[in-house]
Amino acid sequence: MSEGREGEELRAARIRAGLTQEEAARRAGISVRTVRHIERGQVRNPRHASLDRLAGVVGYRRPAVPGAGRDGGRTPPPPAACEIRLLGPLTVLRAGKRVAMPLKLRALLGLLAVQPDQVVRHDEMADVLWPDQPPLSHANLLHTYAARLRRVLDEDTGSAAGRRIRTVRGGYVLDSDGVRLDLREFDERVAHARQTAATAPAEALELYGGALRSRQGRLLEDVSHLWQHPAVVRVAQRHVDVAIDCADLALRLNRPASAVEHLAAAAHEEPLHESLQARMMLALAGSGRRAAALQLFAELRVRLRRELGVEPSQEVWRARHTILTMDAGASSGEPPVSGAFLPSSGAPDTLVDLDGPPAAEPLRVIATPAQLPPPPQPFVGRGEQLDALDALLRPRGTDTAPVGIGIVHGPPETGKSALAVRWAHGHRADFPDGQLYADLRGSGTAPVPPGTVLARFLHSLGVRDAWLPDTTEEAQVLFRSMVAGRRFLLLLDDAADPAQVRALLPGTPGNLVLVTSRAPLTGLVTREGATRVRVGPLLPGESCALLDACLGAHRVAAEPAEAGEFAALCGHLPLAIRKAAARLAASQQVSLRVAVDQLARARGETARCLFRDDPEPTPADGGKARRAPAPPAAALADTDADSVFRG
């Protein structure tokens, strides 16, 4: 066949396989330029090894080429009269042409072909074809389907007609003699790779890679109701084992990027296979993608807890440990120390460093973090706001619901932090894994950077200083990995803007973030679905109750009207009332009447201006609010008690 004609057929096969030139080149281990020239027939003397690899990737059977073996390629056998492909969509080729089949024939052929030369019993076939209830005439229907399948496989084969689907007592057998099966060729390649691994590991890796690249997708990809059949499960598990063996060999040869390539398909098909996912984590980290490896751990942990109700195995935890203790060179794509990522071949269920003494544990054993500030005393009112915060704990509908976020916002000195701390203390039992607290200093001139807060949180969760990530992005990924699938409460006090908070959010449901801020943080509401709880001045009765708790019931009861005036002069702001009451409590001989009169005279219009409930700034972007004027308590704090409350 001419180069031009073969190039056209390779191109047609690539298009049928749904591959781009870039994908075909990557899988075949050749350049895109070479693929392009081959398809255009512009290569005068192409290397047959390259053509063989490309043909295997796109599912094209090359004609025999005399002498092709001299440059490393193997002369392929002559085209089979019948070819059955199971590694991907079920495909039947007869004399090189695709044969269309209805669904039930495809299911029957898939069941026979996945266990060739073995008896498949009638009842097994009936369970596959009619999973709910076989019809009374199912025996006759099976006979009809078998006859139709013979015609599909044996048309125009002369004396061989009818021999490929043989009737035996109690069932049928697919006679694979003279049938080309991609599943059998895959097994032959793998056997060759395993025989070669001990003496020529690099060559064995290429053989493994060739076998895995020959797959066009999942086993019986378009016959999904066969996926749970025991025979299909056994074959699929063998292919997972091949991917793991290939990855282990690649890691032993310090080729983590190759391990990622060969693990990708199997890891996607088996998202709960822990050994497979552990290798993928190690391969990603070894390729310089440590953040992606830790994210994979977090996602795997969530899947296992949600779908199976279990924690990851020790193998997965050890893989994570290896990633956390990996040196900078190993995680940046440079060749790692031999064996740094590799599971011990003598103990396949463990992941350890094979060379040198063990590194220091990256995690310390610590108690559950309980970082909430002391609850405010006394605390009065705020029943409506507390009820709104309680609503954050109600079920959010699905396992994929967003992280719960509550924003307690309002003007200065209204008691936002006191409310948040009070609520958090009342719900510590709802967050058994711990409570984390950070003062973000958003109302000041120098808000705390998210990276600093993340480092503190990670340290609180047990990460040693030497293993803290170097960048905020990596710290985010590690933090989200450590809290995934657990129940933490994060109290972020005095936030500046949505961006400062967003960098600190967990990535999975179950955790709750409570934020206080002078700004409404609209960006968190629109993007993350946060719930806002506004805090304003106390009601007059609540203000008097707070004053009563601070001064003593006898003083307020003796001068109830004056107590109301005093609270009004403080703008009914909790912090202002506390500070003013603390000054007054230090002067027991001063009555509330005298205190009110002298405070009013001392402050006049300035005091009333300071006590007024300033309108809340609402930046258009929901970001950092401007700093509000000093509240009444600040004015009182700047004045000597004797000069205001003089007896």
Structural summary, described in words:
- By secondary structure, this protein is α/β, with parallel strands linked by helices.
- It has four domains: 1-78, 434 Repressor (Amino-terminal Domain) (Orthogonal Bundle); 81-90 and 99-228, Orthogonal Bundle (Arc Repressor Mutant, subunit A); 383-534, 3-Layer(aba) Sandwich (Rossmann fold), CATH 3.40.50.300; 540-644.
- The chain has 27 helices and twelve strands.
- Helix 9 (201-213) packs antiparallel against helix 10, helix 10 (230-252) runs antiparallel to helix 11 and helix 10 (230-252) packs parallel to helix 12 (274-286).
- The longest helix is centred in the middle third of the chain and has 23 residues, at 230-252.
- It is elongated and about 115 Å long.
- The N and C termini lie far apart (114 Å).
